[in-house]
Design brief:
single chain, 318 residues, alpha/beta, six-stranded mixed beta sheet, 14 strands, binds adenosine-5'-triphosphate, binds magnesium ion, P-loop_NTPase, transport, antibiotic resistance
């Protein structure tokens, strides 16, 4: 068995809504898979089926080699889950929550206390440790939720929108926490609307739309599908725009896109930096001042628009 998570043709219907419509996924052991899709695409439904909380209508799913329908207890024993909805106790303090879950994972009292302190520190909750989550901000609750699923390094970790509502610094801490678990051998599946999150963290990305995987690959492969890199140049003087456009056209073999209001020109740059290294001396020889020059890769947002015709996070048309 080469993959920690396998879904084949998963189907799930809620009334008139076909939430999953033949969903396929493979996540190799020890890797991070980003499941990317707009609202209602079926991400949480897939995660709930894979973590054995919801029965599929059809298809098959294996986690750690075990069938989620036939062997749910074996599956549950091997996974950690941070769902989209919080799971912590509202009345217990943050520290007491972590210690309680540590004890549920069979840590000794002392081990549970030590691990709780480590996680409170890692997730910036040390000061709030004595307060119950009902007095936490949204981002703090989310961090406590994540800390709970990080108590043990589970073989397979499911994170449903782990960093929604978090500020940038805490998002980075969560990413570091995930990387740390993965370096210890955990396989992670995370759902996200944040394209940079998939880009930062995921070895592979599966794009889901209307209950089906519509694209799969590394972040770099998905970007490459959309036509590769652009060379972006900003010049110093308006008068030089026509000459700059002529030079770029001869280097790239195609007319550049010119934005005169910001003195910027862009051409397709293939997959290398040849266009960039040719442009600098050619502009210098023509006396054109370069203010800024760079190779720009398409963002995953642009990939998403290319694949689905709409930006990630936009409501899918019914
Ligand atoms: N328990 C349920 N009862 C009825 N419909 C449901 C239920 N759970 C999900 N759905 C519907 O199934 C579809 C997929 O929902 P799901 O929660 O899997 O989407 P998602 O990709 O996680 O979206 P989001 O990005 O908003 O979290 C949606 O149309 C949703 O309304
Ligand atoms: Mg969801």
């Amino acid at each position: 068995m080469d993959a920690a998570v396998i879904a084949e043709g998963l189907r799930k219907r809620f009334g008139a809504t076909q939430a999953l419509d033949g969903f396929d996924l493979r996540v190799p052991y020890g890797t991070v898979c980003g499941l990317l899709g707009p609202n209602g695409a079926g991400k949480s439904t897939a995660v709930r089926i894979l973590s054995s909380l919801l029965r599929p209508d059809g298809g098959r799913a294996l986690v750690g080699g075990f069938d989620v329908v036939r062997e749910p207890l074996r599956v549950r024993y091997r996974i950690g889950l941070t769902g989209q909805q919080p799971a912590v106790d509202e009345m217990l303090s943050g520290r007491a929550n972590l210690e309680m879950f540590g004890r549920l994972y069979h840590l000794s009292k002392r081990q549970a206390r030590v691990r709780a302190d480590e996680l409170l520190e890692q997730f910036g909750l040390t000061e709030a440790a004595g307060k119950p989550p009902k007095h936490y901000s949204g981002g703090m609750r989310r961090r406590l939720d994540l800390a709970v699923s990080f108590i043990m390094a589970p073989p397979v970790l499911f994170l449903d929108e782990p960093t929604t509502g978090m500020d940038p610094r805490h998002r980075m801490e969560v990413w570091n926490g995930v990387r740390q678990l993965v370096s210890q051998g955990t396989t992670a599946l995370l759902t996200t609307h944040y394209l940079d999150e998939a880009d930062q963290l995921a070895d592979s990305v599966t794009v889901i739309d209307r209950g089906r995987a519509i694209a799969q690959g590394t972040p770099a492969q998905l970007k490459a599908r959309l036509g590769g890199n652009q060379l972006d140049v900003a010049i110093g003087h308006q008068d030089d725009l026509p000459a700059a456009a002529r030079i770029l056209a001869s280097i790239a073999g195609t007319e550049p896109e010119v934005r005169p209001e910001v003195l910027r020109l862009a051409v397709p740059a293939g997959d290398g930096v040849d266009a960039l290294t040719a442009t600098v001396p050619a502009f210098a020889a023509a006396g054109i001042t370069i203010v800024d020059i760079g190779i720009r890769r398409p963002t995953l947002d642009e990939v998403f628009v290319g694949l689905t015709g709409q930006p990630a996070g936009q409501q899918a048309a019914a």
